[in-house]
Design brief:
The chain is of the alpha/beta class and about 600 residues long. The chain has two domains: about 1-100 and about 215-265, Rossmann fold (3-Layer(aba) Sandwich), CATH 3.40.50; about 305-605, Rossmann fold (3-Layer(aba) Sandwich), CATH 3.40.50.300. The chain has an eight-stranded mixed beta sheet, sandwiched between helices. A six-stranded mixed beta sheet has the order 6-7-8-3-9-10, with helices on both faces. Strand 1 and strand 2 form a beta hairpin. The longest helix is centred in the middle third of the chain and has 18 residues, at about 195-215. It is globular and about 70 Å long. The model is unreliable at about 290-295 and about 570-575 (pLDDT under 50).
Length: about 600
């Protein structure tokens, strides 16, 4: 009979408190679980359930956020055979453990990376400190790590700063940093939230491979139940700071005991569940909001084109040499054409760096396109003067991915929502106050929140404020750039239902930029699949999802994780194409985009 495997981590009756002006807030209470070598334990739950507080306690980083471990033990089995109680270890000991024996992938890559250091410096510091490598050896290892997480042009990326990378690339750098010293325990806090499905599949396969080869233990924190099904050996379900259920991944998915676990599983949008349904449907919701989840019969509208994009091209210069001359160009958006009708949603999907966000920003002229036509309501946006463009912006607004970055931390929410109304001279005095109150009602936020600041709200509530601000000037078009990707399943469902309800009531058109294929299948009327700056497939949602024609569309759909632990896919099952660079020398003239119409309205790029 085999002796039981000694766990790498044992958490016993953990309690974390946060002293505040209004009294003590309990972050987590009576939390206990273990992680064995080579095991993945997934912690799931809604925003505010205590998932991240638990992980930060294991690194003893919770203290830097104002928290205190007041009860319990956090036992960590070190590589030298000794055991360490993380809760009582000295700061000097923890400095040697963090990054070396326990690695952590943080959720928000822009705050996890230092903006003033190059990527190379941030990857090599830990290797030089913990492993005693020379600068040359550390740089070689850093390059190897960037290749491991499949960053295109890794040699060039090493010399760049975080702001020069896309969100998906920054997240991959954070993952590489966590793996530099091959830790015994890897804590992954929402590591794939900002990544598209193909990169997510590769990263999950990479973590699985390292776990198998190195016997590494993984504490995986996520709100994506499909990722849990693909990754977990055991699952810990948390709610309001406590563990409500724990069990093997199969037990949790096939025989959940708690109502909360069942509701969490029900809220997950599943790829393929919209098959045979002609129109978008509301998301299922947890708890009291479930009644609103019923499908809403769309209003019969006569097709009327709002947005027409013709041969849109956007390129960015690449500087080089001592004189910083333009030596090449990034072909971010290349010969893109599509139309969007009034009251409909066109989703743009594709990998990180494919040109989705650049397309959305080019349409609003937040970045200047190189060539092409952009017509909104028949008016050419590119031909407008600066003054006329400012007036036209009332018709087109944007909801950004990170509401905390797009809201001003120093201004009250009512002032931020009223600002665009005042800028366009649409209301003053009591009319302005009434309009702001109506907007808060419209996005279902209490009027008491009007005097709050952004940091006093949760992620989902902040995103509602961003939507209220976008609605303030009665726009016809809203560009939603990954607007729900950072939200947990229940909050995401509420925000998406709100957006669909507003579309029905106000006739809004959405350009919905996303990498979540299951969400896109639920909300979109039409889908455009982008790869290397071009649309490779465009058509009605049902046609693209149920009859994908382009190899890239098929690869994208096959990489979507399935919320079923019996249908796991590992690296061997996934076929990844080599990474291609969108950078071309000056004077390069790409071929125009030509399409084959495979069905009415369903077009595929001719290769």
């Amino acid at each position: 009979m085999n002796a039981p495997v000694k766990p790498i981590v044992s958490v016993d009756h953990l309690r974390v408190e946060f002293p505040t002006r209004g009294g003590t807030v309990i972050g987590v209470e009576d939390v206990s679980f273990t992680i064995a070598p080579g095991e993945t334990v997934c912690v799931v739950g809604e925003s505010g359930s205590g998932k991240s507080v638990t992980s930060l306690s294991l690194m003893r980083l919770v203290e830097f956020g104002g928290g205190q471990i007041t009860e319990g033990a956090l036992t960590f089995a070190r590589a030298d055979g000794s055991t360490l109680n993380v809760a009582t270890a000295s700061p000097e000991v923890m400095q040697g453990v963090r990054g070396n024996e326990i690695g952590m992938i943080f959720q928000e890559p822009m705050t996890a990376l230092n903006p003033v250091f190059t990527i190379e410096r941030q990857l090599t510091d830990g290797l030089i400190l913990h492993k005693g490598l020379t600068q040359q050896a550390a740089s070689a290892r850093a390059l190897e790590l960037l290749q491991l997480v499949r960053i295109p042009e890794p040699e060039r990326r090493l010399k760049q700063y975080p702001h020069e990378l896309s969100g998906g690339m920054r997240q991959r750098v954070v993952i590489a940093m966590a793996m530099t010293c091959e830790p015994q325990l890897l804590i992954a806090d929402e590591p794939t939230t900002a990544l598209d499905v193909t990169i997510q599949a590769e990263i999950l396969a990479l973590i699985n491979r390292l776990k198998r080869e190195k016997g590494m233990a993984v504490l995986f924190i996520t709100h994506d139940m499909a990722v849990v099904a693909q990754m977990a050996d055991r699952v810990v379900v948390m709610y309001q700071g406590r563990i409500v259920e724990t069990g093997t991944v199969t037990e949790i998915f096939e025989n959940p005991q708690e109502d909360y676990t069942r509701a969490l599983l029900a809220a997950v949008p599943k790829l393929g569940e919209m098959k045979g349904k002609p129109a978008p449907e509301r998301m299922r919701l947890i708890g009291d909001e479930a009644a609103r989840a019923a499908a809403v019969a769309p209003k019969a509208r006569k097709p009327e084109v709002l947005l027409e994009v013709k041969n849109l091209t956007t390129r960015f210069p690449v500087k080089g040499g001592i004189l910083r001359r333009t030596v090449a160009q990034v072909h971010a958006v290349e010969d893109v054409s599509f139309t969007l009708n009034v009251g409909e949603t066109l989703a743009l999907v594709g990998e990180s760096g494919c040109g989705k966000s650049s397309t959305g920003r080019s349409i609003l002229r937040l970045i200047e396109p190189t060539s092409g036509e952009i017509l909104i309501g028949g008016r050419d946006i590119r031909a407008l003067s600066h003054h006329d463009l400012r007036r036209a912006r009332a018709d087109m607004q944007m909801v950004f991915q990170d509401p905390f970055a797009s809201l001003n931390p120093y201004r009250r929410l009512k002032d931020q929502v009223s600002e665009p109304i005042q800028n366009f001279g649409l209301a003053t005095g009591q009319d302005l106050k009434d309009r702001v109150e109506q907007l808060f009602d419209r996005v279902r936020l209490p009027r008491a929140f009007m005097t709050r600041f952004p940091h006093e709200l949760s992620g989902g509530q902040r995103q509602r404020v961003a939507i209220a601000r976008a609605l303030a000037v009665n726009p016809k078009l809203i560009v939603a750039d990954e607007a729900v990707s950072a939200l947990d399943v229940s909050v995401q469902a509420q925000v998406l239902n709100l957006m669909m309800e507003l579309q029905e009531d106000l006739g809004l058109s959405y350009l919905f930029i996303s990498h979540d294929m299951a969400v896109v299948e639920r909300v979109a009327h039409h889908v455009g699949v982008m790869y290397l700056g071009r649309i490779v497939e465009l058509g009605p949602r049902a046609a693209v999802f149920e009859n994908p024609q382009h190899p890239y569309t098929r690869a994208l759909l096959s990489a979507v994780p399935i919320a079923d632990p019996r249908k796991r896919r590992f690296a061997d099952d996934l076929t990844f194409k080599p990474i291609t660079s969108p950078i071309f020398p000056l004077g390069h003239t790409p071929a125009p985009s030509t399409y084959i119409e495979v069905a009415p309205g369903h077009r595929v790029l001719q290769t």
